[in-house]
Amino acid sequence: MATRPNIANLELIPVVTPCEETQARKTSAGSYRKGKMRTRLSAISPHKRFASKIITLVNFGRNFAAESRARLWLLVASALLLGAQSALGATYYVGSCKSGSFPTISAAVSSAPAGSTVKVCPGTYAEQIVISQPLTLEGFTSGDSGQAIIAVPSGGPTVNVHSVDANLAVAAQLLVQDAGEVNITDITVDGTGGDVDCGGAAGEILLVGIFYASGSSGTVNRVVARNQLDSGCGTGIWAENGNTTNETVTIENSSVHNVDNNGILAFSDQSPATMTASIKGNTVELTATQDVPDTIGISLYYSAGSISDNIITGGNYIGILASAPSITVSSNTLINEGLPSNFGGIHVQVDGASITSNKILGSPGPAIYLIEVTVATTVQSNSITNAGTGIDFACYSATVTGNTISDATTGFNDFTAATGNNNFYNVSTVTSSGFCPNSKPATGSFVQPFNRRYIRR
Description:
Elements: H1 18-27, E1 32-33, E2 36-37, H2 46-88, E3 91-94, H3 105-111, E4 117-120, E5 123-126, E6 129-131, E7 135-139, E8 148-151, E9 161-162, E10 169-176, E11 180-185, E12 188-190, E13 205-212, E14 216-221, E15 224-226, E16 234-241, E17 247-252, E18 255-257, E19 262-268, E20 275-280, E21 283-285, E22 296-301, E23 304-308, E24 311-313, E25 318-323, E26 328-330, E27 333-335, E28 346-348, E29 354-356, E30 359-361, E31 366-370, E32 378-380, E33 383-392, E34 399-401, E35 404-413, E36 423-431
């Protein structure tokens, strides 16, 4: 038979009642010292000490059980929280380079929880994709290949969104809609075979590589948008917002080429604008033709933000369309941009913009064209070489100072008012009033990035 443990031998702290304290004081030789009482517990009877130890042991057990339950619930809650965070931050794969991957990008972005990262194996994915929740979509290198290509599906692209501008029908290859923050990195969007014959029997349908619709924000980084050719209605990357809540989109370090309307476009139909776009470090190469003359490299149309450090080449109708107040256009390089008519490398048509430190080379028309501006618009420290006209004022005034114009037919055209100090080298006519004031454009005669002047044969 098992022996019962001798509880009296346990090292427990005794519980002493007031009466026992009084008895202890009477029998103890101790005294109070600095408010602390010494008590000789030997005066307490053994059975009372034993009972106090039992009470202490019971209380200890109760406290231990309560603490254990609390710790258990804490562990359960922590596990649930970690599980939820793990699901939110999970990574999912698309393609054949990883086992257990989704077969299509569409399946992955619709199945993955919000906040996930969807990584796309190298390969070609012929599909139209819609992202409607926050996530990251990125391509990656596997083996000797590092290009994930979104291509036109076999049946051709179909309309999947309408722009806030005049409800224009858009066939977007990669659509981000009411999604919150979506980041896209290292993806190629190829529009080959996606011409929906803009303006033909099917009506006006715009082909767009990447389209950020209202309610979406994020960053497009190291992306290629190419071959969005649509009879004059193809755009590489388009971001817009028609909601009253502001959205911010950054388009950076990307390449756009062989499209036939806008290379990169940011737009808002709200006043004040609710789209803030930062377009920086991109290369845009477009080629205007007789059939499709209206290509525009980068358009910031009634949106806040900036256009900086981009390279734009190819002979466009307009290199940069700056049609938003208080925007900054700086440190861009434009080569062979603009037409001999009044459409320049940089076309400014809203007051309050800052055009600084850009390099414009080989512009057959005006390198910088100003319309409906005042001295609130600043044109400063730009370098213009080999141009038909350096700066065309269209009979308006602006703060123009520190610019260098060389190898040009006319330095300042349609010029009426004095401005700051500028440098002119090898310029046939430094300033010309042109036809001012008779040639001053009518108020509201703006270029719109959606206008098509293509010639249908």
